[in-house]
Amino acid sequence: MASRFYGVNVGAMQPKDVTEGASTNSTAVELQVDLSKTTDKLQVIQALTSILSYLETVESNPIG
Length: 64
Hints:
The chain is of the alpha+beta class and 64 residues long. The protein has one domain (3-57). It contains one helix and three strands, in the order E-E-E-H. The relative contact order is 0.19.
């Protein structure tokens, strides 16, 4: 399974702060995209938008 990992540390605010690689980068927040399930950039952005919406409106623990 091929994956891309994106990560940021606490306090990151700019695109330059994001790390990208083929394996985990041990950052505070990571995203793994499974390339065997999608390689479409728009699908990934839509999924991230759904996650962001969930975190903003539903999630309260432990990051609330």
